[in-house]
Amino acid sequence: MGEHGDIRTGRHCVFVLHAHLVFVTKFRHPVFTDAHLNRMEEIMRDVCADFETGLSEFNGENNHVHLLVNFPPKVALSKLVNSLKGVSSRRMRQEFPELARHYYRASKLWSGSYFAGSVGGAPISVLRQYVEQQNRPV
Predict the structure, then answer these.
(1) Cα separation of 5 and 63, whole Å?
(2) Where do the Transposase IS200-like domain residues begin and end (predicted)?
């Protein structure tokens, strides 16, 4: 996409909000194969769509996944995370019963914690110039 290709519009705002999310498996068990990761990406894309959020990038290894999401301001990131983790855990356990051996007594796929970091955005100099231009009479 171009320099402003990720800019989205809502009813009352224009926004570019990206977050990098990392989810780790319970006890960091090496659980996922490529087939698991491919299905996980599909599930997470569906959840993001329900939140009007774009899944820009997805990648993972045997014990964690990385997501880059483009989300609207009305979405509480914690609610998106809870849904991503909950839905993916439930669906993966249903579709891949062999994953259960990694849970021991826990019925959860993911660790209770996660990483969320803000990503991208315009440099301060660009923002300053934009704000200054808003004060000029037309």
Answers:
(1) 32
(2) 14-134
Q: Are 8 and 93 in contact (CB under 8 A)?
A: no
Domain count, the chain: 1
Classify residue 78 by its DSSP letter. H
Inside any domain, residue 2: no
Instruction: Look at strands 14-15 and 54-61 and give their pairing.
Output: unpaired
Which of 137, 120, 2 lies closest to 70 in space, CA to CA? Answer: 120
Q: For residue range 69-112, list pLDDT tens digits in order.
A: 999 999 999 999 999 999 999 999 899 988 877 765 556 889 99
Q: Is residue 14 part of a domain?
A: yes
Given a contact cutoff of 8 angstroms between Cβ atoms, the answer to whether 75 and 8 are in contact is no
What are residue 68's DSSP bridge partners?
20, 57
Give the structural domain span for 12. Answer: 8-134
Check: CB of residue 125 under 8 Å from CB of residue 38: no
Written as six digits, the tokens of 41 are 């990406």
Q: Are 49 and 94 in contact (CB under 8 A)?
A: no
Q: What is the CATH number of the domain that holds 68?
A: 3.30.70.1290
With respect to residue 12, please indicate whether it lies within any of the assigned structural domains. yes
Rounded Cα distance between 89 and 94, Å, is: 9
